Amino acid sequence: MERLETTYMGLTLKNPIIVGSSPLTSSLDKLKKCEDAGAGAVVVKSIFEEQIESDAKRMIAGSDEFLVHADAQTFVEESSRNYYIDSYLSLVEQATDALDIPVIASVNCTSKGAWLDYVERFSEVGADALELNKFILPTDPSVEQGEILNSYYEVVKAARSICKFPLAIKMSSQFTSLANVVKTFDKMGVDAVVLFNRFYQPDINIKTLTIKPTINLSDPNDYYQSLQWTALLSAYLNCDICASTGIHSAETLVKMLLSGAKAVQVCSAVMKHGHAIIGTMLEGLLRWMDEHDANTFIDFRGKVAHKRMDDPSHWERAQYMKSLNVEF
Ligand SMILES: Cc1cc2nc3c(=O)[nH]c(=O)nc-3n(C[C@H](O)[C@H](O)[C@H](O)COP(=O)(O)O)c2cc1C
Q1: Is residue 243 lining ligand 1, measured as CB closer than 6 Å?
Q2: 3-state secondary structure of 119
């Protein structure tokens, strides 16, 4: 399998398949299972910024004592925060001890909050990198686009200044000026961008007229947006691209590498079909390489990226006449 070796954020991966942050990576046993199935790296299930703050607030809300004992309030806030952080750091530490593949810690944040105080500790417990998942749903009509963008830039800037080890930002595709935003993160010195995150989208239960939470797994056709943007951006960035969303087969994996991804993340495919799909995808990649006389995939990585095409216009078309005029 040495032919499948890749570098991602300066880390050496034995192959380009990373199991993404999800319930598949929430405990030591599960992380080990990903390694045993052949994954090249794992992203641990995220610790949420709200998780760090919320428990303390709930405890304080339930007791009048904290209104008169300000010290007690601080104590509860700190100890609760430490509870979540400590158990998360402990999981990362155990994983880095037990696994031979890189272990990437993950923080899901919305602001420049208390989580920034803990960034260095991720590295101290052995995390090979940090993946930052920042997303705010821009629901407030009075907040202008520039303000929202700035909040992303501030968080990434702050994280970059503290984080002395590899840093990735997991992106949403929902930016008006996506290429410019990615390039700005690149200029800020992130080591990788993960294109793209997939979001929880609530549904309605029409019997009870209530909001129904959904586990929003991707389907094999959900990869096009990630593929297009990987191809459009890969040759223009200094940082690496990790493709994510809808990668369910060796064919899609090959396409992502051809478009310039250094690695890919998989979640839904493993949740739907089991861990064996990782091996199946790697075998398929090797078979494809044999058929195309590629000794390593450095030979073909990025060959179909926008910048490398004689006619790159196909990657740029959002409404392509030929495909929209198909007869049914
Ligand atoms: C049940 C579930 C939980 C997830 N939890 C997280 C998380 O904690 N942090 C994160 O960055 N992404 C999380 N994700 C997003 C995945 O890491 C991944 O980006 C997304 O599912 C798209 O990849 P896929 O098409 O291979 O599933 C979660 C996804 C699912 C389905």
Answers
A1: no
A2: helix
- Write down the pTM of the prediction: 0.91
Residue nearest to atom 10 of ligand 1 (CA): 21
What SS3 state is found at 293?
Answer: coil
Q: What is the CATH number of the domain that holds 10?
A: 3.20.20.70
DSSP state at residue 114 = G
Out of 198, 214, 277, mutate this one to test ligand 1's pocket (max ligand atoms within 8 Å of CB): namely: 198
What tens-digit pLDDT sequence spans the chain (328 residues)?
A: 589 999 999 999 999 999 999 999 999 999 999 999 999 999 999 998 876 665 555 555 555 554 555 555 555 555 566 778 889 999 999 999 999 999 999 999 888 877 888 888 899 999 999 999 988 888 899 999 999 999 999 999 999 999 999 999 999 999 999 999 999 999 999 999 999 998 878 899 999 999 988 888 999 999 999 999 999 999 999 999 999 999 999 999 999 999 999 999 999 999 999 999 999 999 999 999 999 999 887 888 899 888 777 787 877 877 666 666 667 6
Query: Ligand 1 pocket: which of 226, 267, 278, 281 to mutate (most atoms <8 Å of CB)?
Result: 267
**Phi (first) and psi of residue 7, to 5 degrees:** -110, 140
Query: Residue 98 sits in which domain range?
Result: 2-324
Give the total number of structural domains in the chain. 1
Ligand 1 in contact with 244 (CB < 6 A)?
yes
For the CA of 217, the closest atom of ligand 1 is 31
Write down the H helix ranges in the chain. Answer: 28-36, 49-61, 65-68, 70-98, 119-124, 145-162, 178-187, 224-233, 250-258, 268-273, 276-291, 313-316, 321-324
For ligand 1, the distance from its centroid to the CA atom of residue 322, given in whole angstroms, is: 34
